[in-house]
Design a protein that fits this description.
By secondary structure, this protein is α/β, with parallel strands linked by helices. The chain folds into three domains: 143 residues, NAD(P)-binding Rossmann-like Domain (Rossmann fold, 3-Layer(aba) Sandwich), CATH 3.40.50; 162 residues, Dihydrodipicolinate Reductase, domain 2, CATH 3.30.360; 81 residues, Alpha-Beta Plaits (2-Layer Sandwich). Helices cover 37% and strands 23% of the residues. The chain is built from 14 helices and 15 strands. A six-stranded mixed β-sheet has the order 7-9-8-6-10-11.
């Protein structure tokens, strides 16, 4: 990301100057391995250091760009920059999701700016959309595909019928997935991003711990075969929606109709679908990662902050789109009501469907359909039950009872069917 931003600053310097009316000058570059970094030729003369304090304390630096990631050293850099009266541009989703509102309060008191467009969805300017582009609307729902690694894995499983472990290994070879892929495939990366977008969209302090999070490790090729029979596909969906009871937040694999615009998002791309009370539906699509797409977001933030420093702005627009974020506790996802897809793997024997139907009835859940693709291995037989809209709590109760049955090879997989999309 840092190399991408530097390349854009060097290669696009003239266009940037035409848009700003003045030039952006790189004063210093910091990296633990700075001596091994290949810099654009036009930036060879800038100060290079392995100590971030050298950058923050440099009197010629007006804006500190934090692209370290994580919440420890990065927080030290951001705090030190604010204390030194320097504006901050960051791409740090973890830090902004955990304590971005607090950092913004400190930035206001210090009279400097904070910009974070690159923290979510890479090259998609979704912050600018929610902060200014549709700020006159009242957002009622936001759905997104915010993790390119998970989306790549799911769409490869769908296209080729390859197992999750095999596609994950391939994604790691291609550089889409880290050696430890947990943040991506278990939903934590997407959860941090949704926390930021939900704060912008709804004006409330949201942290990742407020969001029900579930990953994609249990998705199998057979799930796509069954979802296709239902005219659906499966994506890792980040969801924030207002209900009469309150805001429900989740990151989880879900079935979405093939007709939904998010169903066409494939590979490592990201997308966000927003519904407003007045403006209704808008959709944003693009590369969610990569040095240059994310670098564009970083440089665009630099340009916005530089304009303020040069020309002054008595009323800065908060990076969270609201002057102050409200104190709010989202309601539990267990209150969500939806149709559900239940996939079972069983050792076949008489009476299984009847027993499962009984457990659904006992939890006041109405069965919709039973699907079974012919299989040869009766000792590991997959089949699917779909149910009428019911509460998440009812599904959890039923799944807990089902999981006790001795004919099951593993607990049932329960996925919501997101029809509102």
């Amino acid at each position: 990301m840092g190399s991408g931003a530097l390349a854009i600053l060097a290669e696009n310097a003239d266009q940037i100057a035409l848009k700003l009316g003045f030039r952006l000058n790189v004063c210093a570059v910091c990296s633990r391995t700075v001596e091994t970094k290949v810099m654009p030729a036009s930036l060879n003369a800038v100060t290079k250091t392995a100590h971030w304090q050298d950058v923050v304390n440099d009197p010629d630096v007006d804006i500190v760009v934090e692209l370290v990631g994580g919440t420890h050293v990065a927080r030290e850099i951001v705090d030190a920059a604010i204390a030194a009266g320097k504006s901050v541009v960051t791409a740090n989703k973890e830090l902004m999701a955990l304590c971005g509102a607090e950092i913004w309060d400190r930035a206001i008191r210090a009279g400097i700016n904070l910009a974070m467009e690159a923290s979510v969805a890479g090259g998609i300017p979704i912050h600018a959309v929610l902060r200014e582009g549709i700020s006159g609307d009242r957002v009622t729902a936001l759905y997104g595909i915010l993790n390119g690694t998970s989306n790549y894995i799911l769409t490869e499983i769908e296209a080729r019928g390859t197992s999750f472990p095999d596609v994950l290994a391939e994604a790691q070879r291609l550089g889409y997935a880290e050696a430890d892929p947990s943040a991506d495939v278990d939903g934590y990366d997407a959860s941090s991003k949704l926390a930021i977008l939900a704060a912008l969209a709804f004006g409330e302090k949201i942290t990742p711990s407020d969001i029900y999070t579930e990953g994609i490790r249990r998705i199998m090729p057979i799930d796509f075969l069954y979802s296709h029979q239902l005219a659906h596909t499966i994506r890792l969906i980040c969801s924030a929606r207002q209900t009469p009871q309150g805001l429900i937040l989740s990151v989880r694999p879900a079935l979405i109709p093939n007709s939904a615009i998010l169903a066409g998002v494939r590979g490592a791309y990201n997308a966000i679908w927003v519904r407003g009370q007045f403006g209704e539906d808008t959709f944003y699509y693009g590369r969610g990662a990569g040095a240059r797409p994310t670098g564009v977001a970083v440089v665009s933030d630099l340009m916005r902050v530089a304009r303020e420093i040069r020309f002054g702005s008595p009323e800065r627009v908060s990076p969270f789109a609201h002057e102050r974020l409200g104190e709010y506790q989202p309601i539990s996802v267990t209150l969500q009501k939806s149709a559900y897809y239940l996939r079972f793997r069983v050792e076949d024997r008489p009476g299984i469907i009847a027993r499962l139907a009984t457990l659904l009835t006992e939890n006041e859940i109405s069965l919709d359909a039973v699907l079974q693709i012919p299989a040869q291995n009766w000792r590991d037989l997959p089949f699917v039950i779909t149910v009428q809209p019911t509460s998440e709590q009812s599904i959890r109760n039923a799944v807990a009872e089902m999981s006790k049955q001795n004919f099951l090879l593993e607990p049932p997989l329960a996925l919501p069917m997101e029809e509102p999309l």
